[in-house]
Amino acid sequence: MQWLLMALVFLGGIGVAVQASVNGGLGQKIGVFEGAFVSFLVGTVTLFLVMLFFGRGNLLQVFQVPKWQLLGGLMGAFFVSIMVISVPRIGAGAAIFTVVSAQLIASSLIDHFGWLGVKQIPLDGQRIIALLLMIIAITLYTKS
How many domains does the chain have? Predict the structure, then answer.
């Protein structure tokens, strides 16, 4: 089962790279925020249909969750808008490399401090070196 989840995560990563390029092109044709809006609209309609036919949860519980847990949509809109702006200028590779590095740095800090209710996993010297090497790698990857 774990290999299946890892394969799905891998496919999701491919999807993010493809999405960045697709949304970047869309934004160049119709406008940055218009492109981000259309991307979210298509995603919203798709998820609505999936939820309608396969959903097992209780959508009304959204009113019971802590309000900060609703920020995911805001962060998603910010992310897609930034990718629409940046990919045509710096390329999909540089944008995704930077995103993945930022995700690892931020998630390492979240783990280290136990923020957002996650299990606390302290940063050690090896992980700090790995994160620093990623920053160096971004510099090398994006250097013209």
Answer: 1
